[in-house]
Amino acid sequence: MLSLGYVLQQTMNGVILGCIYSLLALGMTVVYGILRLINFAHGALITLGAFFVYFVSVRYGLSFIAGIFLVIGFGGLMGLVLDLIAYRKLRGGPEVALLITSIGFYTFIENFLKLIVSPQPYAFKTPDYLNILYRMRFLTFRSIDLFIILSSIAIMIAFSIFIKKSKMGIAMRATAENLEVANMMGIEINKVISVAFILGSAIAAFTGFLWGAKYGQISYDMGFLTGVKAFVAVVVGGVGSIPGAMLGGFVLGVAEILSVALLPTRFAEYRDGIVFAILILVLLIKPSGIMGVKEEIRV
Amino acid sequence: MNQKRRIIPEFWFIIGGCLLFLIIFILSRTLNRYLIHIIVLMGIYSIATVSLNLTNGYTGLFSLGHAAFMAIGAYTSTLLAFPLHLRESYELPLLPAFLTGADGAMPFIVALIAGGVFAALSAILIGAPVLRLRGHYLSVASLGFMVIVTTFAKTLKGITRGSMGINAIPSYTNIYWTYLWLLIAIYVVWRIVHSRFGRAMMAIRDDETAAQVLGIFPMKYKLLSFVVGAFFAGVAGGLFAHFTKAIRPFEFSFAMTFQIVIMLIVGGMGTMSGPLVGTFSLMAFRYALKPVEEHLKVYGFIELVYAALLIIIMLWKPEGIMGKRQLKR
Amino acid sequence: MLKVKNLSVKYGVIPALQDISIEVKDGQIVSLIGANGAGKTTTLKTIMGILKPANGSIVYRDEDITRMSTPQRVRKEICLVPEGRGIFNRLTVRENLLLGAYHRNDEQEINLDLEKSYSLFPRLKERENQIAGTLSGGEQQMLAIGRGLMSRPKLMLLDEPSLGLAPLVVRELYELIQEILKQGVTILLVEQNATMAIRVSDYVYLLETGNVKLEGIPKEVESLEDVRKVYLGG
What we know:
Helix content of chain B: over 70%
Pfam family, one (chain C): ABC_tran
Mean pLDDT of chain A: 86
Radius of gyration of chain B: 20 Å
Protein name (chain C): High-affinity branched-chain amino acid transport ATP-binding protein LivF
Strand content of chain B: under 5%
Shape of chain A: globular
Shape of chain B: globular
Distance between the termini of chain A: 46 Å
Low-confidence stretches of chain B: none
Keywords (chain C): Amino-acid transport, ATP-binding, Nucleotide-binding, Transport
Organism (chain C): Candidatus Atribacter allofermentans
CATH class of chain A: Mainly Alpha
Number of strands of chain A: 4
Radius of gyration of chain A: 19 Å
Order of helices and strands of chain B: HHHHHHHHHHHHHH
Largest interface: A-B, 49 and 47 residues
GO molecular function (chain C): ATP binding; ATP hydrolysis activity; branched-chain amino acid transmembrane transporter activity
Largest sheet of chain A: 2 strands, antiparallel
Oligomer: heterotrimer
């Protein structure tokens, strides 16, 4: 029954999913803006982040707060590693080469986890203070949901300040706009790219934790589709625009949940298909997305 | 003056084909079933790689949705060729009378071609919008197409039996059919590549703007290579379905596309022998390692090695085993 | 200050510069003139380290910088004002200027230099927080030069500053260039607008298809019949 309460509740669920997508889109667009690389490995970092916190906190009992700080560092480190091993070498080559290599990395990490950890999903048990249930008139949610919303906002604000005010942030924006000229200015491009990878990957790893905490379950393949959806969010919001990426994440999250919620139940399985249908529609109708800067998407 | 007798290439194909079938005949008589099984699979995957090579290697359209066309081909040919007497028990729809032969199902060859045609039609449908996109947008959009197709495969339960998939598919595929189709695929790709179509495609791959300036209308050629690629992928899918005797939506996911892509890249995109070398060597590698995998219970190990191999190739020899400077800068 | 010796640069297999030798002395303005494709921009890019030479050497203030990376050269106080301005359209005027000083750490001095740029280009101060893409052509050129100045260069490479600008603006621009010279910056200027360039320069090199066709002080170069016909409009 389509009551107001139901719609509000689903909208809230959409917003929460949207927070996660926004964070992922943010991480993805930081790298994409500079390298024009769709980093499939981004999805792998989600999975890695989730499993990292799982082992550190759920299995071995370190406090979740510590786990969160550690996973952010871990993610950053992984991003740097990927940059140094591969992407740096491929820089300046054909775009497709980077894409293929990132797919290779994703598959490697996914199968590595499948092998070393398990092909079976694990239950991600969160501490009680993240599970407190809040019941309001129209909305029901748990404290983890609040945590997701608050931490997303915090990260987005922190990131915006960084990218607007700090020297490195300005350099990153400049490099994203025109890498050659940035190089001519004496900006160390390699350093800028490394920072982009570290930031993006750290955020992705943290998001993996959020995902595991929210949905209570993690598996070796949880990152793939989510990672690609992050790119869809970037496109929807507008490639090349950081606020666009964040907006795109929200729009996609709400659209995904609401479309499933408002259609008859048998359409629930169309969920993923709907996300990609949105992608194709956006690419056809308004390729620059909601807030996008003109980029050659068409040939 | 002496007129030089030109030996037309088709002649070589026919000779080669006869030789091939002779070899296959000998093999089928001498090798055990397991090895024949592997050889057939190699053939099927080769059809997929060869067709993807036309789209990705020669035209530069990095499509990640090839598994979608295989899925379409697989389901179409299965549904058309499924024996009538089994349809009820397997909850599959009956075909309208005018379409079928005596036993309420189409002959295998017709169903197979229909699968390819259906895949080709969907390629036209999705190609028109998607092929306009550049580089990685095309890749992700084609990936999205694959997700959409598998989603439909899961949801149109009345036709596809949803996630459970279809079982008890009659085993029509054999080694002869497979390699005949492979030969056809290679011949078709070869002909296209060595014609003005092929030259146009390669021009588009190397520099689309320059190609346009030369008067080449990109969409026509992109669509041609995409559709031909899809047709053979559909055929491969049909062969696959009637070989493995069961199909489910999740089989035609990214993992399958990845397999084909890696075989193509390792072998060498944009060369005629590349996809074959890649497919045969990687599959041989897989089956050689399979006993190790099972013995040590390390499932997924082969995919790991594949992925590592892809990364290594991309970093050090991106043109693949058979390739000449293509992906390299 | 700058000695380029026997420089050869190739784009793949196509030679862009063949055996070029150029000298710029302290406090001079030296111009490279020549038609499109003569290799002028290529020369500047190679001096800046964006392109790697196949042969030859670049000696700057008695130091061989041929192997150095671009950021290293920037730190040696060489700056390039690229062809077409090369400003970051999506950043503000202020941010563009600050980027010129990216490699510097002395915040107070940077702010001083910012003020100095503003005094040199008052219009930029007015538009401090405006997005650079909204500026007029002339203002963008000033921004590009101002940004170059922010790195406190000893040597400034100016690539076709008058491109696309109205004659009045070009005159204003060249007054500014001479002002900069007075402040102690050595300038290597590339121009298609040979007339203006010759007028302000101490020495001129004429490039043609990757070679130095001739060189000399402006009076000499101007007087040559061929040059007048082809490059100075008769």
